[in-house]
Fold:
Amino acid sequence: MMKDFLREAARVVPSERQLRWFDLNFYAFIHFGVNTFTDREWGTGMEDEAVFNPTDLDCDQWVEAIKAAGMKGMVLTAKHHDGFCLWPSKFTEHSVKNSPFHGDVVKLAADACRRGGIRFGVYLSPWDRNNPLYGTPEYNDYFCNQLTELLTGYGELFYVWFDNACGEGPNGKKQVYDFPRYFELIRKYQPNAVIFNDFGPDVRWCGNEAGVARQSEWAVVPHELCYWADRQTGAGPLHDAAPHALDTLYNTDPLIGTAPQIFYSDGLVCTPCEINMSIRPGWFWHEQEEPHDLDRLFHTYLTSVGANASFHLNVPPDRRGRIDARDVRRLKELGQLLDAEFGKEIPVEIRRVDDGTHWSGEWLLTFAPGERPVKYIVLEEDLTQGQRIESFKIADAASDAHFPLYYGFTVGNRAICRLGDPFALQNPLTDDSDPAPRSLRLLVTGSRDVPALKTIKAY
Structure:
């Protein structure tokens, strides 16, 4: 019964739009608005529109900085919690049309992305601290009107990003968001766009804003967590025994999608994870802040793009409307480091190992003499057949596999395995052995069904 359900779980697959999102891997968030000029993170909604006045707005400069880091898309905060709109919405006066700037920032950003060859998406805050309808059923009409403006006025969108921020406090106004209605509009006008929300349908939050990843990240998760997504399986074998076991499941749980958990689920969905953080401590630009160091950004890349998730890195423009020179330098350094580490593959001969009767879940990777030392092995599952691998290890083929160079868990869309990583199990024989082994063994030690690796690459 358990094995049958694991095989069923192994056949939960992403949609075409989710596969396209996975291919992007790394994209930018742009937090820009009245908070940029008031030095706040959350606005009150009472700001004078005149405060928004970028003196040298240059969205092409944003795109250039983003591309230098290797990012392939941009998501703009078209409206944050303060309700100020970066486009001249017909449905509110709290927008750029009543600012000294007057221009349509959403259009400028969308056009710059297309000129630069990257994808464009929008963030529209459901929470609106300015609009008097907030807290009433009529607010959903207002929100849908604004959402429709963005979905129909700015060309193709790859992403529509929502959070679930809501209300003014214990005694304040509370709004019941009509997310099914919002999703229906997106599917109607932007059918290729993925939707981000804490509870699905397409992409979910990692549970923090610090770029911290789980030890193992599953795209196949319980329906209780991502209840906006479509179930692809029946209930788990233990669901009837404890039907409310996952009622409190949330994105902060470190074990989302693991086998013991999914057995209690009322069904499984495919809703992969996005890891988001800002290049600085804050999400909006603050002059006194500095960008995070290169090591932190690179580590986050490895544990997001390299761990079956995506990396959504916020880069906030300053009051001129340009990316700060300090951030531009850091983005360029990150792009150069990624190119140095992953810009050139090491040729590898790959052979599946069997014992004469059946395949053992092992691959032998052989490298030509004289090749530079292997630092990374990059694995990708064929997600059109489902996410299956639960654990694996990589060892020097000439050494004892009980002492691997790397021990990993899920693979999914991509696993970047840094051999000798301080978080991986170390090979105690490395001091006495060849530091550049000519062959490695990749062994799958746990899988929900027959492993279906799409690629194995070395760098």
